[in-house]
Amino acid sequence: MRIPPVVTSPALAALLAFSAIPACAEMVLTSPDISEGTAMGEEFVFDGFGCTGPNLSPALAWSGAPEGTKSYILTVYDPDAPTGSGFWHWSLFDLPATTSALPRGIGKEATLPEGAMAARNDYSQNGWGGPCPPQGDKPHRYIFTIYAMPQDKLGIDETASGAVVGFFAHAAALGHASLTATYGR
């Protein structure tokens, strides 16, 4: 009786290795206030820089964090701002791992979860800074991203910029999810 040869193809070995990995949930970010690819309402618009909105943050919820998540970072970034470097509208960090949602109006009508902090946005404020693109500019994209972090605290304080918070998020996140809304005037 002849025994067939063992297949040693690298592609087959990789396929077999991946088939042994259990499927893991993917992070998802949702909002009852904003939807992927659609325009944000006037209630979220900044009050300043030529805009006169109520400057409320939208409600957000997330799920599917990877195992080992000890805190979250939330950022809102406008890559279309005419600055050469985009515009940070919101950066929250040290959100406890037990947090899975934020109500509308954080910092104005609701408070951050205990231990969480807001970094300085590009309006030089610690908190939500709503959209206010230049008059007549094409609608800008506002990318809301939640990052699952492997540490309880980043070790920075409220004087940190959105870019510094973004650095920590991109350097160590276990997973992330994004939602992009638009706004133009």
UniProtKB/TrEMBL annotation:
Keywords: Protein kinase inhibitor, Signal. Residues 1-25 form the signal peptide. It comes from the Bacteria. It comes from Rhodobacter lacus. The keyword Signal applies. One of its GO terms (molecular function) is protein kinase inhibitor activity. The keyword Oxidoreductase does not apply. This is YbhB/YbcL family Raf kinase inhibitor-like protein. InterPro entries: PEBP, PEBP-like_sf, YbhB_YbcL/LppC-like.
